[in-house]
Every structure is written in structure tokens, then in C-alpha cells.
Design a protein that fits this description.
By secondary structure, the chain is of the alpha/beta class. It is built from ten helices and nine strands. The longest helix has 15 residues, at about 70-85. The structure holds iron/sulfur cluster.
């Protein structure tokens, strides 16, 4: 059977991370080794804001390791976990929690080198904010990029400033664009995070964000569903009836139409939200991740479309 889309090995109609990693590392499986290096965030410590983004339980708490452990030990533990599924697999060390360039460049270098020195680590993924990339950090990332497989993950969520204010993002879309340019000028691959279902956003606004990001032709995109988590500012809005999370059908349609707006070469690194776990208040349907992914496949097939169709 002929694949309906060239950048997939399993009949998906979007550019899968599996395809991307297989092309980069044909000889073995590669997983993500999540690391919590104990960073904070300028949107939590008062430098740019306090309280954080309205959906944030202060960073990627759900899937990251414990910052009480040295980076090396966290990566080794993650490698063991990955190798229970795929013996001999390699790993990309994923600095996931909070803002992973929010420290002096020397300290960052030491932490990244510690992860890269673990046998089996074949790359680095660094999640950060656009306003935390000063020149010396950019230089460090450019240097690392020349000798390892590096991705910098930038949280944009939306291009709409009005929404950014509502969610207390505390940096502008112009800052995102400047950071994106600075990274790509140095050859660094960027993966952009977007969130669907943000307060006040219409489907048209979410599609505008996807279109604008698609025009940048990023290396990767992560599409998240907005989760309402216990303990967040969003949870208060949801409890007083001021926030309506997306329904499953709506989310599936929006994501598929966004995929049509993203270039086929852009790797889709995530298609649903993650990190909800025990704190998830809404939407409850998002717990059925497989069902959501299957519904996305169905929608694309039924509409005989695929990623990049509307670029
Ligand atoms: S930038 Fe990230 S870590 Fe900081 S408040 Fe927002 S979501 Fe949380």
C-alpha cells in the first residue's frame, strides 16, 4: 500500500516524529530522556511576571525527572526506562521543566555537557522562552548545534497579543520572532509550541496562528490542547464558568485544519496535550489520547487531506 503522505512510515497523514528520528538515526530507536535541571522561570520569579502563565502548574512537572538528582543520574534513569521498551535505544536529553536557558551560559554549558556525556545520549532538546536567549546563550547553542543534534523548543502558544495578555505569557510575539530568527540564523532547529483552546480564541484565530507559524517553516511544531489543571489561574476561571474548554470534535477539526496550514517538512512532535495526569479538571475527554489520535487520522482520511495541503 502506498503511503498517503511521504513523511510517515505508518500511513499517517502528517510528518511524524518517528519518521524524523528514523531518518536521523536509522540504526536504532531514540527516545526522549526528560530532565528537570532545577531552573525557574522569569514569569514566576518576578523578572517578567509573577504567577506564571495561567495554565501552568509551574512547568512540565508531569513528565520530567526530579531536580533533586544530578542531571547525569536523571538521564541514566530515563535511558533505563526507554530501554525497557527498546533495548539498545539511544536518547535525546530533553531539558523540559521551566525555562531551560534561564541561567548564566557557564552553568548551562555544564548542565548540557553533563547530559551529553552519558553514553547513549545522541542529542539535546532545550525548552525555553523567547525572552531568555541572550547573545552568550545563543552562542553556546550555536556551538552545541555544530556537534550534536540540537532542538530548541520555544513556547509561543498563540500569535495573538490579546490572548497572550489574558494568559499572562509576559513576552511578546515580536520577541518570539526575534528569538526564532536568532536561532535559525545559527542553524539551530526550532520546535514551536502552540496551544489550542486558549481563553477568548476562536477557530479562526487558532488557524491564523498555525498559518503564521507555518510561514516560518519551523523544524518542528507541538500542538497542545489547553488543559485546565488544578491549582492554576485557569482553574479558577473554569470553576466560575468563565472558560469553556474545547470539545473533542472541535479540537480534532482545528488540529487537522492547522496541519493543512503547516509545511509538510515540519515535524509534528505532538498532537495532543500532555502533562495533565491527576491534576486534570477539564476537558476530561483528553484522557483518551489514543482515541484522539485515531479521530485525527479519521478526519484527515475522510476529508482526503494531509499536512501542508493548504500551504
Ligand atoms: S513560561 Fe513555562 S514555566 Fe514559565 S510560567 Fe509559562 S508555562 Fe510556566
Amino acid at each position: 500500500m502506498v503511503n498517503p503522505f511521504p513523511y510517515s512510515l505508518d500511513n499517517k497523514r502528517y510528518h511524524t516524529l518517528y519518521y524524523h528520528l528514523k531518518r536521523l538515526f536509522p540504526e536504532r530507536r531514540v527516545g526522549k530522556a526528560a530532565v528537570d535541571a532545577g531552573f525557574t522561570c522569569p514569569n514566576l520569579d518576578g523578572t517578567r511576571g509573577t504567577g506564571g502563565c495561567s495554565y501552568c502548574r509551574s512547568g512540565g512537572t508531569e513528565f520530567a525527572g526530579s531536580s533533586a538528582l544530578p542531571v547525569r543520574e536523571q538521564v541514566e534513569r530515563e535511558l533505563l526506562r526507554i530501554r525497557r521498551k527498546w533495548p539498545d535505544a539511544g536518547a535525546i536529553a530533553y531539558f523540559q521543566s521551566h525555562t531551560n536557558t534561564y541561567a548564566p551560559a557557564d552553568r548551562l554549558r555544564a548542565l548540557y555537557e553533563e547530559a551529553l556525556a552519558v553514553p547513549g545520549v545522541c542529542g539535546l532538546s532545550v525548552a525555553t522562552r523567547a525572552d531568555c536567549l541572550p547573545p552568550d546563550v545563543l552562542q553556546l547553542l550555536g556551538e552545541l548545534n555544530r556537534r550534536t543534534c540540537l532542538t530548541v523548543e520555544l513556547g509561543l502558544q498563540t500569535i495573538h497579543e490579546e490572548t497572550a495578555r489574558r494568559i499572562n505569557r509576559c513576552h511578546s510575539t515580536a520577541e518570539f520572532l526575534a528569538a526564532y530568527r536568532a536561532l535559525t540564523e545559527r542553524g539551530v532547529r526550532v520546535c514551536v509550541h502552540l496551544i489550542d483552546g486558549l481563553p477568548g480564541e476562536t477557530e479562526a484565530m487558532m488557524l491564523e496562528t498555525a498559518r503564521a507559524v507555518g510561514q516560518l517553516r519551523p523544524g518542528g511544531v507541538k500542538l497542545h490542547l489547553l488543559h485546565v489543571l488544578e491549582g492554576t489561574a485557569l482553574a479558577r476561571d473554569w470553576r466560575r464558568g468563565a472558560l469553556w474548554p474545547l470539545g473533542r470534535e472541535e479540537y480534532v477539526r482545528v488540529v487537522c485544519r492547522q496541519l493543512e496550514l503547516l509545511p509538510p517538512e515540519t515535524v509534528i512532535e505532538r498532537l495532543t496535550g500532555d502533562g495533565a495526569g491527576e491534576y486534570l479538571l477539564a476537558p476530561r475527554w483528553s484522557r483518551g489520547k489514543r482515541a484522539v489520535l485515531a479521530a485525527i487520522d479519521r478526519w484527515l482520511a475522510e476529508h482526503d487531506t494531509c499536512q501542508g495541503r493548504a500551504v
